[in-house]
Structure formats: C-alpha cells, structure tokens
Amino acid sequence: MSKEWPLWEVFIRARNGLSHKHVGSVHAADSRMALENARDTYTRRLEGVSLWVVPSSQIVASDPGEAAALFEPAEDKIYRHPTFYTVPDHIKHI
Amino acid sequence: MYTTELNTSASGRQAPVAVDPVEDAVRLSAFEARVAADDFIEPKDWMPETYRRTLVRQISQHAHSEVVGMLPEGNWITRAPSLRRKAILLAKVQDEGGHGLYLYAAAETLGVSRDEMTEALHAGRAKYSTIFNYPTLTWADIGAIGWLVDGAAIMNQVPLQRCSYGPYARAMVRVCKEESFHQRQGYEIMMALMAGTPAQKRMAQDALDRWWWPAVMMFGPPDDNSPNSAQSMRWRIKRETNDELRQKFVDVTVPQAEAIGLKVPDPDLHWNAARGGHDFGPVDWEEFYAVVRGEGPVAKERMQARVAAWEEGAWVRDAALAHAAKRSQRAAA
Asked: What is the pTM of this model?
C-alpha cells in the first residue's frame, strides 16, 4: 500500500485586521499542495483572505495533564484585573 | 449528509490496553462529570477507550457516508437539465467531498489514520449510510435527495454541533452551515417539476415514492432496538434518539410535500392533534437490515466505484510523494 501523505494544520485569516485562526487539517505531499487542498476544503464560501499551512508534526502542544500547573496560578493573581481595585464613584475617567 | 450509527463486530481496532483500575475509575468519574456539565473533550484529553472507539466508528462512518454519497449525485452531473442546475450540483457534490474531509480529519485526532479508515470501508468492516445504496434513476431523484436526504441529515447534524467531542462538534458546525443550501436546491428541483407538465409531476411523485421510506430509515433502528443509544446519549455523542429525530423529520417534511401537491406514500399517515405530531405507518425494518448487511440495490456498485478510485489513484499519490521528496532533496543540496 502507498504511504500516506503528511498531515498539515490549516489556519485562515477571515479578513484583514483579524489574526489567523485554526480551522482543521488536510493531507498533502508538499506545502504547495497543502495550500491548494486547504483552499479547496476550507474556503469554498469566502471564508478568508489568507491561508497558513503548518506540518502537524511541527506543532508543539501543552499537555492537558499539566493544565493545572500551567494555568491555575493565574487564578490567584486577581490583582492583575482592574476590578480588583476600588475607586470612589466620583473619580472619573479611570 | 449522514450516517446511521451502526455497530459492526469488527469495528474495534485493537485490544483494550491494560490500565490501573483504580486510577482509571478516578479518571472515568472526572471525565463523566465534565461531559455531564457540557464541557468539550479535546483530542489530547484522557477519555475512556470505549468513548474513543465509539467516536472513531461514528465519525469515520459519517465521513464514509459523505464520500459514498457523492456517487448517486455524481451520476447526474453530466445530465443535469441546465447549466444552472449543473453548476449547483457540482458545487453540492464538491461540498460532500469537503464534508468527508472535515470528518476524516476529526476522526484522525482520535489516533486512527486516514488509510486505516479507507481500508476498513473497502474491506466492508466500516459501514456508511444505507440511503446511498439506492439508485438515482431520474433527475427528480436529485431533487428528492437534496430535499429528503439532506433534510434528514440536517435534522441529525444540528444537535451534533453540541456533541461532547470538540473536533466532531466543530466539523458539524461547518457542515450544517453548508447543508441548508443542499436541501433548498433539492426542494427547488421538486417545486419546478411540480409546476411542470403531467409527466414531470409524475416523475417527482415517483421519486418521492421511492425515497420516502429509505429517508425515514436514515435515522437508524427504533429506540428499543438501538443498543448503543443510551451510552451515546450519556456521553453526549448523540443528543436526541433515533425515534425523536425521525418524528421531527416527518412533522416538518409532510407539510412541505403537501404544499407543492406531492403525496407522501404512507396510507397510515395522519395528523394526531392529541399529541401534536404525525402518526405514520410501520417502517420495513427487514429492508433496512438487509441494506445494512450490504444487500442494497447498488451496494456492490458503490463499493466497486470507491475501490477503483482508490486503486487507480495510487500512482498519483505515490508520484506526488516522490516529487516532493526529490524537490526537498534538491533544495537541501
């Protein structure tokens, strides 16, 4: 049986002014074909103005098992949010 | 389009892995709590092996249905009655290919490869929706498929946008956005025929007569004979039962038929005011199970077409890889 084409992750910029957003993946032999397949698969209805394709093997992801260690400390630091601070009502523009 | 959620004895890919039963019980209860709270499960999250296997089966069979579903409609692209209809049908069939790709990609996040899924389909271990094993005999069948088959698909897929597995839910969002054009173009074909000559009207009625019951069967076996339903509902990989979806489909479709002068081929069909729904006649489940077993009128033809496309395309896939390897070698030199 033939070897499977590598997997690529697809990112689309919906319109200028917005960042690229992950939409899914495609198989392709090379980067050009990955762009063409992404175009045919994910932008049949004006979904975007720009495409990125990245080999899936190149994506490094955080481990869900470490989510607590990575993200929970942020919950202790509520002083990072403006609502932590009390300012009298008559003080304006702050 | 849509696949009924079908179990096959050979669908398990691998023997269950050995796990620490205590640790597993803790993880399982945490998993179930998340799902019950309508949280989404993402690819790298821990999940019970049965959840993973059920999803691989359900998503891959859904994908196969999209791809095999291109065949009955592709049959009419060259014979569409106008350039407008041809362009529409081409776009619809291309969408079905796209839907297959979204779904294969979602299934691949569960650790099954595209080739493994293709191989399971071709070897007959994986199923696809029974509806595609019926032939498309006339142009009106293209109308009936869009209206009824895509209509039934929407009925099934809308709740799946809230399914617990993130990649599947996201694929369903994309599919649902595109699917309503499919249904409307089908109904428009039926409307045009029903506004036409007596022969065109007969053709539309004949298509409804042949597609009605297979469409009603698309929602799968009745709830009391749907062994996986309870578990799938609890895990939120199915949000409404087969019979609930079937009833909804009948209730919305019957007035659409009547509005253009079509008669639904069911002598027992009538509005039941007491319960606010249509009562309808018994479904021929023997026919359904026969088609599931591969005895549908064009089942062999469908698989031969898929296998031929795969085998005759092998050299193209190999050549593309060889070309990419050669180019990257040259770039490195």
From this structure: 0.90
